[in-house]
Amino acid sequence: MNERGIEEIISQLYEMVQDARNVPLSADKCMIERDRVLDLLDEISNQLPGELKQARTIVESRSEVINNAKREAENILKQAQMQARQMVTEEEIYRQAEIESQNLIETAQDKIKQLKDATNDFVDDALRRTEESISDALAEIRDSRAKFDALLAPQKELPIVEEE
User: Fold this and answer.
1) Neighbour tally for 68: CB within 10 Å
2) Gap between the terminal Cα atoms of the chain
3) Looking at the domain assignment, is residue 82 inside a domain?
4) CB 3.0-4.6 Å disulfide test: which of 20, 25, 62, 101 passes with 30?
């Protein structure tokens, strides 16, 4: 089966409705191939779980990035502390080690904050785009379904002619 994105399928649905022939004596009603529309809607339904899984994967990768940053910061902190202990022998060297250690700690904390902010922005943007895509797809489906229901309504209202 040809893998198409949800946007492409929705575009195809939109084109089907737009290019459909008008129902006789009606400018705002049209005829479309029911099976073809239903197949496209099934394709969208089948792909939505994948899009949601992708969003979950992004959230999980965010946690992994944060954990890696914390480990890196802990390693930097341990290295700074080891350097500070080795330099305790002389007063001036000891003070320098403290200053460098504090700078490394602050640098690590800044790096963690930057990574966390960047990761949060990335995840938020990805989730927003996924939400918009799903929302757009749902709106298109509802619109197509309403148009389809509108097509069926005149057929249901046709009077039954009784033979005399």
Assistant:
1) 11
2) 54
3) yes
4) 20
| Residue 40, beta-bridge partner list | none
User: CA 74 to CA 66: how far, in whole Å?
Assistant: 12
Contacts of 6 (CB under 8 A, 6+ apart): 44, 47, 48, 51, 133, 137
Whether the model clears a pTM of 0.85, i.e. scores above it, the answer is no
Number of domains, the chain: 1
Closest CA to 134 of 3, 9, 2: 9
Asked, for residue 111, whether it belongs to a domain, the answer is: yes
Question: Tokens 């379904």 correspond to what residue?
Answer: 145
Residue 21 β-bridge partners? 31
In a domain, 161, yes or no: no
Render each residue's pLDDT in the chain as its tens digit; 164 residues: 456 788 888 888 888 888 888 888 877 888 888 898 898 888 888 887 777 778 788 888 888 888 888 888 889 888 888 776 776 666 777 788 889 889 989 998 998 899 889 888 888 888 899 899 999 989 989 999 999 888 888 776 666 666 66
Burial 100-139 (b: 16+ CB within 10 A, else e): ebeebeeebeeeeeebeeebeeebeebeeebeebbeebee
Domain of 72 in residue numbering reads as 6-22+32-148
